[in-house]
Amino acid sequence: MSEFMIRAPAKVNLTLHITGRRMDGYHDLDSLVVFAGVADLLTLDPKRPEGLDVSGPMAAEAGALKDNLVLKAMRALQARKEGLRVGHFSLVKRLPAQAGLGGGSSDAAGALRLLADLNGMKSDDALIVEAAQATGADVPVCLIHQAVRMRGIGDQISLVKRMPPLDAVLIKPQASIATPKVFEELGLGRGMVVPQTPVEWPDSFDPLTWIRAIRDGRNDLETPATHLAPVIALCLSALKGTQGCLVARMSGSGSAVFGLYRSTDHARSAAQRLATHHPDWWVRQTLLN
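Given the sequence above, the corresponding structure tokens read:
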């Protein structure tokens, strides 16, 4: 095979409970994470010199190449594995940046998986995992790209069993928010602990059972993010106003939001309506699992 190719799917936090803030300033969390059918596309050509080019509808949002997490992940693995075979990455950027959808982290995880394939390594190889951790907090969970429960500072990851696909619509308005600003707005002091009600996820493959459980959760960053970007509230209101929407919530630190729907037809109709009425929003119908 002359080229290696992989999809880098959007990451969606169905719930995100902030459980406290450590003395080192990092926040602890408890989050249910799934992945969407919409994705960036990443290709690795081992016959070309190492590097990266970016194209696609969201290429302008990808930022400077030198700061791209794909290259950061490659260098992190190079530092850990002597003689690593590398090559040239081509990224088709379809996911919006600064959205709370983990696009950059998913791209980095995709790069590590491609490098693992090229070098005869498994994606759960200790060196791959170490490189993921060194690249960014969300990269290890994107490396797994299955439904997981993520706790601690993102370092405690456990697979969620019997998670059914959920019909959804994703929206990203034009507003973008820097994650540190959202946590600053949250206002937790160092050493603070937030009491939590224990969370148990369903032992069921029924989508409506899962949606009811997700509806009982929350995203603790939604309120501070909405203070910084009030359009988030408009997006949530628009989702709630569509037929068949059972849950509407922000993902990650925003500004993207999602709606969970009763059926694929409801999600498709909602996406069409929202895209028509809000042509400046990025709107996608998808499945989450």
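The chain has a mean pLDDT of 96. Try to locate this feature in the token string yourself.
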